[in-house]
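Q&A FORM
Asked by: J.P.
Topic: structure of GNAT family N-acetyltransferase

PROVIDED:
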Amino acid sequence: MEIRPLESADIESVRRIARESLAASYSVLRDETIETAIEEWYAAGIFDEYLDSDEMVFLVAADDDDVVGFSQSHILETLDKGRILWLHVDPEHRGQGIATDLFSATRELLTERGTERITGLVLAENEEGNQFYTTHGFEKLYDRTITIADKAHVENVYGEEGTELSELEPRTTTDDEQIYVDFAESSRGSDGPFHPSYVEQDRNQLYGWFCSNCETTNNAMDSMGHIECNQCGNLRKATRWDAAYL
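REPLIED BY: S.T.
REPLY: Here is the structure written out as tokens.
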């Protein structure tokens, strides 16, 4: 088994594995929801950006010429923080240690790239995925409610043991409401990062997305993970539904 960087020839294998892995791990999701997500996140043009990006870390597990798993991670802009977005293994090849090999290689590469803090995301319904993180030394930091295809789901955020949550910075909205922005967490936009803003400091209820380009606070993310700033047009493309919060 070889763990190597993503190549352009891997596109169809990655799409197939993502589709079959999501169906196996998340029985609560409808087939059409999964298919729409795959078409959105792994379109051919998106892969070109992944291959050229210094911020996206994409590894595949290959058995001879067959890709049987992949991990996708994001190095957050201007921060020493990495986030594991996805770790998928072909259901027919699970139980062989492939996920562990991918996870170890991903952590090692993120550390080599300068990240000092690594987090991972998994829906609460995925018992196997949650157990995987705890088995490999991660602990649950907090959970949050997200919406996928008009249905609410709980998503757990895991971090390496001993990880401390960053302090949220209070800001006042145009309606004189107090919100709390997490500047230690970001999502890449075309003109600058977006940062999540919360109603309370417990992080359970998201208010919106703070645009660093123009400092507006109430930008929403759609059900596939896009954000477009209401004021300046700063655009975040989808990589998962990890924040279809609103």
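FOLLOW-UP: The first strand starts at residue 2 and ends at 5.
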